[in-house]
Design brief:
Length: about 110
């Protein structure tokens, strides 16, 4: 799944842009895309899922990436905005909250 996301991201832009979004080198992206990456791909896989993986956010009613999801549910309770607090509370019991944390820890 993560390789499909990576290939789609490269096809939609470039290896250089994808590498910048992932925080890895262009060479690493190129090697992974061509199946020649010599090292463990777990780090790249987790970055691809975090940046390009989409989750249907029940509170927002739209898809967001895993990094956005994690930022909503992992942040401190926002005390200055009732709207933000409502969102944060919804995130605390959302099924994607635990799924996102688990996916980022263990998806190779």
């Amino acid at each position: 799944m993560w390789r499909d996301l990576l290939n789609a991201a490269v096809a939609a832009s470039s290896k250089t842009q994808v590498a910048a979004h992932l925080g890895v080198s262009r060479t690493a992206v190129s090697l992974v895309v061509h199946g020649k990456y010599p090292a463990d791909t777990r780090h790249i896989a987790s970055r691809v899922l975090e940046v390009y993986g989409r989750i249907p956010c029940p509170h927002l009613g739209k898809e967001i990436n895993q990094a956005e999801c994690r930022s909503y549910h992992s942040s401190q309770p926002p005390t200055s905005s009732p709207r933000a607090m409502k969102h944060w509370r919804a995130c605390q019991s959302c099924k994607y909250n635990e799924a996102t944390r688990h996916n980022l820890r263990s998806n190779p």
